[in-house]
Amino acid sequence: MQFINGKDLYNMFNYGTYYIIQERSYLNDINVFPVADGDTGNNLLHTLRTISLESKMTDSFKDTLESISEAALIGARGNSGVIFAQFVNGLQKSNGFGKKITLEEFSKLVEQSVGHTYSSLSNPVEGTMITIMKEWSIKLNQLLLEEGTIKQKFTDSYIHINSFLSNTKKMLDVLRENDVVDSGALGFTLFVKGIVSYYNNDDIDVINYENIEIEDQHEFNGEITYRYCTEGLVKSSDYDELTLRKDLEKDGDSLIIAQGKSRFRVHIHTNKPQNVFQTLKKYGMIETQKIDDMKLDINLKNSHNKRVLVTDSIADINQELLDENNVVVIPTNISIDNVPYLDKLSITNETLFNSLSSYNEYPKTSTPSIKYINDLFSRLLLKHDEIIVVTVSKKLSATHNVILNEANKLQAKGKRIFVVDSYSNSATEGLLVKEAIRLINENFETQDIIKELEVQREKTEILVCLETFKYATMSGRLPKAVGNIGMFFGIRPIMTLKQGKGSAFGMALSQKGITKKITKYVEKDLQNSGIKEYSIVHCLNEKLAEEYRILFTEIIGKAPSYITEISSATAIHSGVGSVAIGYIKN
């Protein structure tokens, strides 16, 4: 009797990864379901590569499968990757065996896992990866009745599903219209091809997957109902899946819940990722978050603009302007009780401050990871010749230096990336981004754009009205002694920026007093140099922002370019009720 042991199992996955690598670009190109976002090949490769790199091969089938299952859950990405991870975890969940198993036992695991995978989907659709999984299971069970080796039966099962694959075109209108098979279904077929290749002892390179770039290089089109492909890995071994599913389904579609022993991964397409993570928070400890803007990805990949503009989430600017001009926003990381959130994506100011009293420690900000920046720039440079980045002041955040360092590394390789320190944040950083948009749209030369932004940043002014010293003190922006004295006397401070660094501008005992001082300062700049453009931003204080709009429209003679809420990364320091006017002088 022939058996499958731990080393066999590990190599089955390793060889499967090889065949996904070979067809990754094609899998991306034919990806039209559930959303034509062209990343199925990338997602499957990321999932399988993580398995190859992170799991441990042992002689024991049981131990190796447990290791593979854990790695699959951690590395799962996208719709296809999470479904594949759920399939792997289904194998592990049914695993009651030891060091080695027979093909009959393996076939039983596959059959049980297929049922497990179907149950994880909110709306299982035939003609996709799950259909090929089911066909493979059916064929393996049929082959058990025939004579032959494990190698022969895996080969026959692959031949069957590879032939059956063309039937998926008939099962979904979108596949028939595009004359393609389902990308995920082909991906799973290639995985089984890898299993056959292992048993054939094919001489292929299955070792160095670490340096393989997972970037797409194709164009595609598609309609987006839900904008954000959202995923969260949650540490929890005790939760009710049906209740979780019901809680999540109201916020989007394409929901998949992949379960492991001590954690689960959720995949969902949604327009409100912040709601998803507030739900997940109730079910366990959120370990990782991933939010991809599918709408922006499609627009960028179909864009013919050779330059792309990038900024960070601390730049406060209206979303419509960002969308219209395909501006890429790098989210600042916000840590709340060691749970990572993505600024302006998975956390809002309302959520941040409504739960403030329940936090064990005051929220903190941190820079985007080096890998995130490097991956982003590498991906953008596949489509665009140049990247222009406008960042928050380096004196306010280390984000600038992280971005600059990665840009310098790519510049050394001949890539054209230009990084501009805005010397500011919030409203004035947003105005500089708006200025960059204008210069790009008017086809200024890149060097001229950089020079003009460096000129304009010297003319920016921001005046921030704080309701209290409380939040600036709690966040560490103000010394405790200063903050406590201010709070004791009920003083309301006015903050500004000098040479890119925050400083106190003035203070008053009432909102009316603060407004009077800010108005006087604005009128002085208006008289001395004139004001080219301005914006108003706030933290959960639309009422005062509207009062400022009316007031400064009358004083300056024109309406603000936009009014918007500030980023949570800034709100941590300025606090609830803060309002600011930012402007660029003539």
Description of the molecule:
With 586 residues, this protein is α+β, with helices and mostly antiparallel strands. The chain folds into three domains: 4-199, Serine Threonine Protein Phosphatase 5, Tetratricopeptide repeat; 303-332 and 367-457, Rossmann fold (3-Layer(aba) Sandwich), CATH 3.40.50; 460-585, Hypothetical Protein Tm841, Chain: A,domain 3 (2-Layer Sandwich). Helices cover 50% and strands 18% of the residues. The protein contains 24 helices and 19 strands. The strands form five sheets. The protein has a six-stranded mixed sheet with strand order 16-15-14-19-17-18, with helices on both faces. A four-stranded antiparallel sheet has the order 4-5-3-6, sandwiched between helices. α2 crosses α3 (61-75), α2 packs across α4 and α4 (78-93) packs across α5 (103-120). The protein is elongated and about 95 Å long. The termini are far apart. 49% of the residues are buried.
- Amount of beta strand: 15-25%
Mean pLDDT: 89
Q: Report the total helices.
A: 24
CATH superfamily of the largest domain: DhaL domain
